[in-house]
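Module 6 notes. Inverse folding takes a fixed backbone as the condition and produces residue identities as the prediction. Think of it as a translation problem where the source language is geometry and the target language is the twenty amino acids. Below is one complete input and output pair. Work through it position by position during the lab.
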């Protein structure tokens, strides 16, 4: 049986939920999400949302900071649109029930205003936040709003396997998205969902790397699905490593927000010496690519397993009030951030490239939109400015909703065949899935990390090609499980990252290759674009 809707939304982070709310007045919406509805990168966002809301700030300054971080690869028209539309989208989010942190305006009448944080690369305080749990508050507010919309249905524990397109079904003409095959994780059954508009909002791919700030959902499923469906994927070499992930044997992926450095936190070597003045005039608040490389270089130089982030000079009550989640979590690992520096290491954090779209989220496939971390609009260029991703997701989801509802597509009645699965289900072979999973993540960390070389990239390319072949054989023989689907997706995305990195013969922003240590002016403004070869 095919389930039919007017809009299919894949993913329930900020991009998917915002789009669903915007299109709900125009038809029936299904949100398909692979775990519980709040589980997403959005839910873990700490620092906040960058937007121009203060008199000391301007659109021009936010645009300039974004372009500077992006190292010559941002699309300026896209940057301007997103920056300028930010404040209106923030106002709507507040209207919907989002509670940002406020502060008292100095003066006699006790007035309050939005509290603005600062992060690396920003020339002004402009980050709206909910203490250090901004993402959790966004998910709460959006999901509460969705709960009151009768025509939005959320399908939890539903894993989107592959997009269904007219080309895949052998139709001539322009490629049109028709729906998606979805694994219901509890029953193991694969269902067909169909709609004239499919909105891809599946987030990023941090789990492609061994160490990441991302939760387990971030396996690059959307990029892999879109690539398999034949649309262009751009700039996948630009993987952002966050400089400060908590280093502790028992801590899994816990971020120490850049806002800690925004409030005065100083990076020091493991024996307590500040080092960022050697690397950039903004010291600990330099753009992320520079800070992550500086830490990597200090760790390699000293052989230490971590560096330190020290904010102990700030009053304890301020730290506990401003960073309650970081304070509490570190304390559970025996670290009191008010009294001692925090051991930190860089970890994979954000995918700057993705499915190539315009600023309205349109892809090369008719009816398929992509927004949020899964997409590459040109906002981030070669390095994302901190806290610009939540902003991008809000603005582009809104624009995509307008585009999709103002230009409805004519109905296309094509019979969609049911999913065909392999038959074998041999539990002994499950070890292959976990072994390959570990191998990909480790080799990406070792060979395709913060500092790259041609030799390491080539080595990674060959190993991933072998793994892909093995996974492909396995895939068609066996009944699909979410583990196998995620393995196939991380292998595809790893392959795309390596292929993109090999295509760019220069160092720019987050892509740093020792064989070409400088940017090449020939490559300024050039995206690395990959499309799946069409088999004839
Ligand atoms: P996500 O929020 O990741 O949502 C993706 C959704 O898709 C999830 O619901 C997931 O379950 C679902 N999904 C994935 N694959 C499938 C599939 N195959 N089938 C069905 N469902 C699927 N950015 C900022 O701007 N400011 C910050 O302060 C900030 N802090 C961050 C802190 C952390 C720890 C992390 C990890 C990221 C942070 N970021 C921050 C980045 C930002 O949170 C993300 O880029 C943004 O939330 C992405 O939103 P999204 O809606 O595109 O995807
Ligand atoms: C952080 O709080 O440091 C994360 C901000 C971001 O990734 O934009």
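Target side of the pair, the amino acids:
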């Amino acid at each position: 049986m095919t389930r039919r809707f007017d809009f299919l939304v894949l993913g329930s982070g900020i991009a998917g939920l915002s789009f669903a709310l915007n299109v709900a007045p125009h038809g029936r919406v299904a949100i398909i999400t692979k775990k519980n509805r709040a589980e997403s990168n959005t839910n873990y966002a700490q620092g906040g949302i960058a937007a121009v809301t203060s008199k000391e700030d301007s659109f021009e300054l936010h645009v300039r900071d974004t372009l500077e971080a992006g190292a010559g690869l941002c699309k300026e028209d896209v940057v301007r649109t997103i920056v300028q539309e930010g404040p209106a989208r923030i106002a709507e989010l507040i209207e919907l029930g989002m509670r940002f942190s406020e502060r008292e305006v100095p003066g006699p009448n006790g007035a309050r205003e939005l509290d603005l944080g600062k992060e690396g690369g920003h020339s002004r305080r402009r980050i709206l936040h909910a203490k250090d749990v901004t993402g959790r508050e966004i998910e709460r507010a959006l999901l509460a709003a969705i709960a009151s919309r009768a025509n939005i249905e959320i399908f939890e524990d539903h894993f989107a396997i592959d997009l269904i397109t007219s080309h895949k079904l052998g139709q001539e003409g322009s490629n049109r998205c028709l729906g998606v095959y979805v694994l219901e994780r509890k029953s193991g059954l694969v269902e067909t969902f169909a709609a004239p508009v499919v909105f891809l909002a599946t987030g990023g791919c941090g789990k492609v790397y061994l160490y990441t700030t991302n939760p387990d959902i971030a396996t690059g499923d959307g990029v892999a699905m879109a690539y398999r469906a034949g649309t262009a994927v751009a700039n996948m070499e630009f993987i952002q490593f966050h400089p400060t992930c908590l280093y502790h044997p028992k801590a899994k992926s816990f971020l120490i927000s850049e806002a800690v450095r925004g409030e005065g936190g100083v990076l020091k070597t493991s024996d307590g010496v500040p080092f960022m003045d050697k690397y950039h005039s903004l010291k600990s608040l330099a753009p992320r690519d520079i800070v992550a490389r500086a830490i990597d270089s200090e760790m390699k130089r000293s052989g230490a397993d971590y560096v330190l982030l020290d904010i102990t000079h700030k009053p304890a009550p301020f730290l506990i009030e401003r960073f309650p989640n970081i304070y509490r979590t570190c304390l559970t690992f025996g670290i009191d951030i008010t009294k001692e520096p925090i051991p930190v290491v860089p970890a994979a954090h954000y995918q700057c490239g993705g499915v190539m779209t315009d600023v309205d989220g349109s892809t090369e496939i008719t009816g398929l939109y992509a927004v949020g971390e899964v997409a590459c609009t040109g906002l981030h260029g070669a390095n994302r400015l901190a806290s610009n991703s939540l902003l991008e997701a809000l603005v582009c989801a809104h624009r995509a909703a307008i585009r999709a509802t103002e230009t409805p597509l004519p109905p296309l009645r094509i019979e969609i065949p049911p999913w065909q699965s392999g038959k074998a289900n041999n539990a002994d072979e499950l070890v292959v899935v976990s072994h390959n999973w570990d191998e990909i993540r480790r080799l990406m960390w070792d060979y395709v990390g913060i500092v790259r070389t041609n030799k390491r990239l080539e080595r990674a390319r060959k190993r991933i090609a072998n793994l892909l072949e093995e996974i492909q054989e396995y895939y068609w023989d066996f009944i699909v499980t979410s583990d196998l689907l995620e393995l196939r997706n991380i292998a595809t995305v790893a392959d795309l990252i390596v292929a993109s990195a090999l295509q760019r013969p220069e160092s720019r922003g987050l892509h740093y290759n020792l064989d070409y240590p400088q940017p090449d002016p020939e490559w300024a403004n050039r995206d690395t674009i990959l499309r799946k070869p069409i088999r004839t």
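Reference fact for the lab report: The chain has three domains: 2-237+352-406, 244-348, 430-512.
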